[in-house]
Protein 1
Amino acid sequence: MTSVTDTSASPPEKNYLNEKITVSSWLLSLDHKRIGLLYLISLLVFFLIGGAAALVFRLELLTPEANLLRSETYNKFFTTHGIVMIFFFLIPSIPAVLGNFLLPIMLGAKDFAFPKINLASWYVFMAGGLLGIIATIAGGVETGWTFYTPYSTMYANSNVILAVSGAFIAGFSSIMTALNFIVTIHKMRAPGLTWFRLPLFVWAMYATALVILLGTPVVAITLVMIFVERAFGFGIFDPALGGDPVLFQHLFWFYSHPAVYIMILPAMGVVSEVISCFSKRRLYGYKVIAFSSLAIAVIGFFVWGHHMFVSSQSTFASLTFSFLTFFVAVPTALKMLNWIMTLYKGSVSLASPMLYAFGFLGLFVIGGLTGLFLSTLGTDIHFHDTYFVVAHFHYVMVGGGVMGFLAGLHFWWPKMTGRKYPEAIAVFTAIVIFVGFNLTFFPQFQLGVHGMPRRYHVYPEEFQLLHIFSTSGAMVLGFGYTIMAIYLLWSLKFGQKAGSNPWDARGLEWETSSPPPTHNFHQTPVVRQPVYPYEAPSVTAPPANDSPEASHG
Amino acid sequence: MDHPIVPVKTYLAVFFSLMVLTFLTVYVAFLDFGHGLLNDLVAMSIATAKALLVLVIFMHLKYSARILWLIAGSSIVWMVVMIGLTLADYRSREWIESQMHRAVPWVAHPVEAPPAE
Amino acid sequence: MADSHPPYLAHHFEDLEQQKQSATLGIWLFLITEVMFFGGLFLGYIVYRGMYPEAWHLGSGKLDIVLGTVNTVVLIVSSLTMALAVRSAQINRPKACANYLLATIVLGTAFLGIKAVEYSAKFFPGEDAAYVLIPGANFFLDSPFSNGVQLFFSFYFTMTGMHAIHMIIGIGILAWLYVKARQGTYHEHYYNPVEVTGLYWHFVDIVWIFLFPLLYLIGRH
């Protein structure tokens, strides 16, 4: 076997990255850390595709007329953006990358309970992703990511079947991951690691996995129904036979609303870890945060009808769903309160992961509060299907989900790769992304309030200024992501050696080396302390005298 | 414990009960209980009884940890939530509209439905 | 138990008990997803049946109740043989385990065969049949409720089709287990795959227990 080329003088320690470096040792790896990295690479490719599609249609929206895209092509671009970003980036993002990498380490286990299923989940995911890409290349889909019937089943003239199959298959991969998470958390915890000693990231993953298990199969069967209707001419949602397209919406949103929590709960878990570490405090209200994750997971299933206020859903059901929707705000607000209480009188340092966590706090509050406008029956009639909705869910999914993902990526990057990225540039990038994001989406609230409907490529001239703001914001965002890609790649080779615990954080993942050895720990750890023991010194040697090569640049 | 060895006799008893219940459900399907709903209620009760027998004995739930009871139960609860809240829509569509303009006179009368084709 | 690491204990588990419990917990969690999967179909069934009760009764009456009952019996017997296969592995009788697995495979295949007979009667109703019950452009039924009946048959085929796909997957796994069991892979210390497949098989049986009255037995009185 070829040996690892390393510029450092001392021979490299054996870790999961350099133990074997053949292609097959990666593609057939049962190591959860390697599978996490496989996911990371593939998800970033999907992120690039989804982002590029967004840039194209944002360019089209610079002018009120159609200059770049015809209406049908425009529809295909936003559909690609939606399908790719939701099914192939956001839903798997934190669980499949960070969760895969960290969960067994945080539990003090050697691996997940079912490593083969874990590897299979990546292949299944890639198969689904490939179908999605083929659907796009073969001419695209123009139904929007929601596949609403009867358009998707009877009128759409595009590759609906391929795209639906792609999403269906990707769902299996989520289910496999979720199953592994729950079994592993139940059965593979290290000795002494009781439920209330688990890091909050683990609690968040547990709640997420519950949502995935209970929700994903419903969207799977819904997609099957679309499939049989389109492929075999069965009339399940066909109004001509007395079928009801609104039934599709019920089934679809039963999963797709909780899917928002699949994207947000993991981000909340990451933010809990980051805030605790960079305030150097045990999280205030640990149990409240832990149980509020479960509460969000449960209540999240009772609210789907708020997507259907202007469909033929009965007023009674709308009232019920509106009322229930307000309840989701409660556990979310409790989390916010506890994070802020943790910051209060903590020794806060503004490292790049913390900046993303702050970004999450601010943006998610805006996203959450604008959600209340939409869950109120009267105002929703005005805002429904306008840019207000677009801005709202981007504040939640990008401001919440993606910011959480970036916070986690920056927080655990030294652990995953063993290298530090240049902190000053990372801080600068975090600010660029924050500004770019707000510039893109804040004007869209205004557009929505003034009545600009979503999913149109032409618009009255009075909206142009706001659209120009939005498009330039998208460019700034794109710029920010590009710098990030550059410095992260740079750090792989040239970054400073990180040492076991560069942030002076607490938790089992910081007690093993960076990058961790193949089986995570040289011997099964025994947990004797409560969670987040920031008042006690770190168990691992402090970073200053961690290893002789720490000074290597 | 999670992994009991169940006597063959128990398995056979369950099997015969399942057979009896199967023929019973076919038989009662041909009886008229006066109201269609009653027929459904009986059929569903028999099906539930059969499902419980399979769950508890064949699937060893009886001998299993509480967590498995919780899992099995939660899936049923979630299905009931899904069906219940959806039916809350369908079952109230006509009812709520008719109630609304009786109770609140200034609410406009619903638009007349177009004649059926 | 942890001191010896037998070949059937995966390296990342501490002991056999942990491995067994993980497998059982895993399959039960998977079965939750199956409940919700079929739950979506049941929801559709309930909503439409509420809208078109007469059409549902009419459609149900067109199904073959004898074949449906026979299939229910076949499936229940297969559940019994499956349970006995697990038991044989538990009490260390690999040969009996293999035989019971084979019996389960045969019964499962018989179920699918009978199902195929039923399907083909709908696909090829004969030259002089008064109706065609395959939903789609060719559907024909001389009845004021024909649209609703078409919806019923859309559900009939989707539900039984999904159930049949689960059976096919189950038979595939059983065939693989049978080969392994013949080699004596499963014994009192290691029978997770048989037990887990058994749970899956029983679940598929439960789905049919509900499908049978909902599809075949309504509106018979």
Protein 2
Amino acid sequence: MPATDTRPGTKTILVIDDDADFTATVRSILEREGYTVVEADSGAEGLRQLKACDPDLVILDVMMESPTEGYGINEAIKYSGDYDAFQQTPIIMVSSIQESPDDRFPRAAEVDMIRPDRYLTKPLDIPKFLEIVRKVARH
Amino acid sequence: MDEAQRGETIVVIDDDHAMRLACEQALAKVGFTVSTYADGAHGLEAVGAARPGLVVVDLKMPGLSGLDVISRINAIDPTITIVVITGYATIGTAVDAMKAGAYDFLPKPFSPDELRLIVRRGFERRRLQMASQQCEIERELERRRFVTFVSHQLKTPLVAVHQYLDVLRQLGETPEAAAKRQEWLGRCLTRTDELRHLIDDWLTLAQLDGGLLGRQRTRLDLSDTVTSVLQTYEAMAARDGVTLTAELAEPIPVHGDPTCVGVLIDNLVANAIKYNRRGGTVTVRGRRAGGEVVVEVEDTGVGVPPDALPRLFDEFYRVRQPGTPKIEGTGLGLPICRRIAAEMGGVIEVESIEGTGSTFRVRLPDAEAAVPVPATGRSS
């Protein structure tokens, strides 16, 4: 794991994905734009890194060890109470499967709180992805 | 009364006031919640509003007939159980009522016990029907989840390749692109290989399931199969610093499809090398034992954690061990092995100690079990 760049003014993006190749390309795209990228190859590692690097944005894969691991991580961050300090950290979910996050979050009252900020389908449309990253990342 | 049925709601529709009262008393006495109506129209209104579990309906009423009521109840909610009562009991009317969707038929006069018995049976059938519907819904959901999962597995390498190429294209002729190009193109090739293996394995599985593969029955000597598979892995084993050993009784006669038997042994040996460690060994033992043949592939590798053992033969399941490098594989090798062993009338088992190694054991019917084994019994 590369050391976290903590230069002031640099935004940190945590990429949680078990596919090292996907992460490598995302890292390259984001670093060119001046972001600092921290990687985690599992949900558990992602939660550890969340606390360690306090990212300005999380890119979160849906299917990792389990088919819904990403949703579990998203919910843990926003809803479990163990990650209160990161409840407002923006999250972009990514998956090769196209589906509406609304189907995943049927409990209407909680939707606004636990819904990820965006849901993007892999492969990423890179210009659009960067535009969303700029918009969604913590300012 | 059956506690599970306590409080269940019943609607009684009969134009005879005395009959309504008798039914209400007989059923309310044992804990059912009963409401009664004197004609079909009011009864249907109540059924639509209250959705009772069961309706007791008289067949011969002024206005809407019992048969009309039955078909309209079915239109409101087909899970509502309908019991027909009538003073004009004939086989013909009973059959008509059942055809219209009634569950059972009770001729007047009847005792309170008879009514209660038929109502309880009706509720029990309804419970079973709903449980089976629930099972059906869950099976369908499971099937859809699996289709989603398979398409995800197939898309993942494709996504990786697409992104490598897309990013390389966008980097253009920059020094950054030049530095990455060789490595990334190499990764692209690895991932396209992965996708190819995935599709091959998926096709093998589908062919096994569809009966298109494995039906050919030739007499084979498993000793030969093992020996030739081990030969093909000599280079890979040497590269990984793993020693291959065979302890084979000769012959080991089985009936099977030569391709499938080869795939079975090949997958097990490949796994035993891949999940081994430098300096480790793979030992393949084969013997005949009481009507069956046993082939064991034992490795001295990373082993399988106990909680992963039950899922080891599931499609796409990959054991993840933190701290160990990711090992390439489709997650379909062992499901294929299990299908092939089953196709040959055998089984595959695994024993494993985490950190020490695993033994995969295939037990298949001995092709010569029923007849005395001639001294020159080798078939190949």
